[in-house]
Design goal:
This protein has a domain of 161 residues. The protein is 64% helix and 4% strand. It has nine helices and two strands, in the order E-H-H-H-H-H-H-H-H-H-E. Helix 2 runs antiparallel to helix 3, helix 3 packs parallel to helix 9 and helix 6 crosses helix 9.
């Protein structure tokens, strides 16, 4: 095998378009089938309260006349609890959808790198550096090929999304600490960047919006569209692929 070779990463337009369309399909369907189902939970809670009130008022009673004020308070409290459950479900669905979108992008990226690099490296190297490597390692790989990914406008959003998914999956840990330090706006008001919060970090502070979902989706699309058609890495003379 030659001792001086160039490694190439090719992104053909057909492949780019297929990947982008697959991503956009996921985004459209996730919004229509999942996220948009929570657009009117305030109205749902109001209707729940109205139905509960009508049910309470139509129920038969015996003995003394019921205390209307107590019934109204109980119905209001029940409706508030129903809204809180819906809101919590909305947050969980939103986070799980963001996680699914991130993992789709991550697997697409690793598939692409494997297909491009298997011409130069054996399966063991691919498994170790591509499939078992961290996402940050893949960015390092692109930097070696001359694409300064970290200087791209979409990078902070992908980096933050990676941390959010890790916090959502694992809870407390290094990802939560870095999210608090670098992107505290993805934590609730309790998690705002402060000395106190730093010592009492809680993964339950994680909080994202539908707008955040849209921003992450746009960042992943921008990543694929910005990837150069051809990237080249020149191996040192004493180095050869394995």
């Amino acid at each position: 095998m030659a001792q001086h070779r160039s490694l190439e990463l090719q992104m053909y337009e057909y492949s780019r378009n297929v990947i982008v369309e697959r991503h956009m399909f996921f985004v459209r369907e996730a919004k229509n089938r999942l996220l948009n189902q929570f657009d009117d939970i305030e109205g749902e809670a109001d209707r729940y309260q109205d139905e509960a009130w009508q049910s309470a008022m139509s129920a038969p009673y015996y003995g003394d006349e019921p205390d209307i004020g107590s019934i109204a308070q109980a119905v209001t409290d029940d409706a508030a609890g129903h809204y809180m459950l819906l809101d919590d479900m909305r947050k969980q669905v939103r986070l799980s959808t963001v996680a699914a979108m991130f993992h789709q992008w991550d697997k697409e990226l690793r598939d692409y790198l494997e297909n491009e690099l298997r011409h130069y490296f054996n399966g063991g190297w691919i498994k170790k550096h591509i499939w078992n490597g961290k996402t940050i390692d893949l960015f390092d790989l692109f930097e070696q090929f001359g694409w300064t990914v970290r200087s791209q406008p979409f990078y902070p959003l992908i980096d933050a999304c990676n941390l959010i998914v890790n916090v959502y999956k694992h809870g407390k840990g290094a990802a939560l600490t870095r999210l608090h330090n670098d992107y505290p706006h993805y934590l609730s008001k309790l998690g705002m960047k402060s000395w106190t919060a730093k010592h009492f970090l809680d993964h339950k502070w994680l909080e994202i919006t539908d707008a955040d979902f849209d921003n992450f989706a746009q960042a992943f699309e921008a990543f694929w569209r910005a990837m150069p058609e051809r990237l080249v890495y020149h191996l040192p003379e004493e180095t050869a692929p394995v």
